[in-house]
Design brief:
Elements lengths: L7 E6 L14 H15 L4 E6 L7 H6 L4 H25 L4 E5 L8 E2 L2 H9 L3 E5 L9 H11 L4 E6 L4 E2 L11 E2 L1 E3 H6 L7 H9 L4 E5 L5 H6 L6 E4 L6
Length: 243
């Protein structure tokens, strides 16, 4: 069995990741795939926390662009993350992985309220903890929530699971000359406005020296490879030169 490089990780999943090939909602096939990937890391003894977006159901920023006030739009988006978190909890527990959902907005009939000490205790007991409802505040993305929760639980790394194999200096979908960056500094991401995470999340990670690894979760086994320290995806860290 391979030896994991990291003891405690936080994995950020977009809501769109749960759609699979659908245009909306939750794909049962993708849920099963994600739960299998997470189980493979769980079996290594790694402590896993998750933050899941809600874009497969509702995006607050998009709603605000056609007239809805940003605050209620973001609140609806937070509720969408709770839906996704409960769905992911169900499929993980069917694979024998004990899971707890903690929400930044109190809804005790569905999940625990977010309490840092309790979250850490769950992790220490080998439970996967899913942080839902973002930070509980409008105008903050789930990227920022992921960076915040990763720092609070003292995760070794923040892992952003995406549909591309890392960070590029341009959009690889539109620019054939786009170059993949194996590593890049926080400041370079901010300066060049590389569209990998929002600037608040990157700044928070930079201030707390939290490395961020961006990788393609659709390649089977990639999550486990990243946890074991293999060279997969791109790493945002202090002092990287982008080469």
């Amino acid at each position: 069995m391979p030896t994991p490089k990291y003891k405690r990780v936080l994995v950020k999943l977009s809501g769109e990741a749960l759609m699979g090939d659908r245009g909306f909602g939750i794909s049962p096939e993708m849920l099963n795939y994600l739960s299998a990937e997470l189980r493979s890391v769980y079996d290594l003894g790694v402590q896993i926390a998750l933050v899941v977006g809600g874009g497969n159901i509702f995006r607050g920023v998009a709603a605000s662009s056609y007239g809805m006030d940003r605050t209620p739009a973001d609140h609806i988006g937070m509720l969408a993350t709770v839906i996704n978190s409960i769905a992911l909890q169900d499929v993980l527990e069917k694979r024998g992985v004990q899971t707890r959902v903690q929400t930044a907005i109190e809804m005790s009939a569905l999940a625990e309220p977010y309490i840092l000490r309790r979250a850490i205790r769950h992790l220490e007991k080998g439970r996967v903890v899913i942080f839902a409802a973002g930070t509980g505040n409008p105008y903050f993305t789930t990227d920022t929530a992921a960076a915040l929760r990763a720092q609070e639980i003292r995760a070794d790394v923040l892992m952003k699971a995406t549909k591309v194999d890392g960070i590029y200096d341009a959009d690889p979908m539109t620019d054939r000359k786009a170059r993949k960056l194996d590593s890049v500094s926080y400041l370079e991401v901010l300066k060049r406005q590389l569209k990998v995470m929002d600037s608040t999340a990157v700044s928070l990670a930079m201030d707390n020296h939290l490395p961020i690894i961006v990788f393609n979760f659709k390649v089977k086994g990639n999550l486990r490879r990243v946890v074991c320290g293999e060279s997969v995806g791109s790493c945002i860290k202090e002092g990287s030169d982008g080469d």
